[in-house]
Amino acid sequence: MFWQPASTKSSDVSATRPIGIVTFTTLFPNTVQPIHGIFVESRLRHLLASGRVAARVVAPVPWFPRFLRKVLPGYAPYADVPPLERRHETTIFHPRFPVVPKLGMTVAPALLFASALRAFRRLQSDGDFDLIDAHYFYPDGVAAVMVGKLLRKPVVITARGTDVNLIPQHLLPRSMIRWAAREAAGIIAVSQALKDALISLGIPGQKVRVLRNGVDLKLFHPMDRSTARGRLGLSGPTLLSVGHLIERKGHDLVITALAGLPQLSLLIVGEGPQRSALEALAVSLGVDHRVRFLGRIAHERLPEVYSAADALVLASSREGWPNVLLEAMACGTPVVASNVWGNPEVIVRPEAGELTLDRTSAGIAVAVERLLRRGIDRIATRQYAEKFGWEETTGGQIQVFSEVLGGSAKCLV
């Protein structure tokens, strides 16, 4: 059975039936954006595969007047997202919440709450559920707690990155994040660095469980390098940079580092508002003939690109637990990453790759040269990645949910 009605008594939650959850997040794939928030879907799919949990998803998408679509073209694709869809046998609701320019960050939790409440009430009447599984603290987690208090459902919030390492710099969001953390029945952080950030906000450490993201070792695996490189037309040593083309991902630093690495070429996977500026930077540095923008690539095709590269470079200024590092390593490709937030928790062995001494183009170039100089053992890199499957995280989630529903959320460690 896809969905088993939740009992009204939390004590009835046991191994005899799955725990009924509603995953609530604006970070979830849809028919128009198939890789948007795919890390949330990946964690949920492995959780569902355990048979211990049944889930439905409420994934709100932005709405705004049609006459503003030319003004805000980045939001236009959301208009084609269906209100209800199925992905991998999971039912997903996409309620609309209005986008309010300039006031968006301040009012977003209330708008999310108002837009999602109808969907939650429908789910409650159609089999009910045990708890709300929210991803991203602000505004998603705050809105989830609002819903939970109204419907008297416990909420577990997962901190994922910018929601904790950037947004709390703003006074009102910081206050609301603290409120949501106090009211939540449980908190998950995808890295120790994010847990430390939550503690710095005054959130008791014993309430936060660290459960890292895993990697799909079946999807991400080494492919024949000659074939992969041939399909991409590669003829020499090649670096790879993957991520949304925005400032904090640091693609500009990787391009600049290339000026000091004359023997290397660079592939960049992703789309975003910085593309034109990055292309212009490559031209100004005289490295444009060694830089190729591949645009957005389907998740299923990434193993080929990872396998073709000699190293992945991640130059982000902030990361929670960067999935691209594990994906690359699972394909046998070592990594070079900035020494920030969750990155040092991923790269703890030489076979994984190198951390930069500082987040500069010079620091990246030095780390790349250090990695290439000591040689690359792609088999050892893959073996290292095999330690990061989803089993431990799935078990930890089930334990958190069970403790919350058993009334022992305060004992989470």
Distance between the termini: 33 Å
Read across the widest sheet, the strand sequence of neighbours is: 4-5-2-1-7-8-9-10
Net shape: globular
**Largest sheet properties:** 8 strands, mixed
- Give the helix tally: 15
Number of domains: 2
CATH architecture of the largest domain, by name, is 3-Layer(aba) Sandwich
Mean of residue pLDDT values:
90
Task: Compute the number of strand runs.
Answer: 16
> What is the H level of CATH, i.e. the homologous superfamily of the largest domain?
Glycogen Phosphorylase B
Give the CATH level 1 class of the largest domain: Alpha Beta
In percent, how much strand structure appears in the residues?
15-25%
Structural account:
There is one protein chain. The chain has 413 residues and is an alpha/beta fold. 38% of the residues lie in helices and 16% in strands. The protein folds into 2 domains: 10-214 and 390-411, Glycogen Phosphorylase B (Rossmann fold); 225-388, Rossmann fold, CATH 3.40.50.2000. The chain has an 8-stranded mixed sheet with strand order 4-5-2-1-7-8-9-10, with helices on both faces. The chain has a 6-stranded parallel sheet with strand order 13-12-11-14-15-16, with helices on both faces. Helix 2 (104-125) crosses helix 3 and helix 8 packs across helix 13 (361-374). The longest helix is centred in the N-terminal third of the chain and has 22 residues, at 104-125. The radius of gyration is 22 Å and the shape is globular. It starts with 18 loop residues before the first strand and ends in an 8-residue tail after the last helix. Residues 1-11 and 408-413 have low confidence and may be disordered.
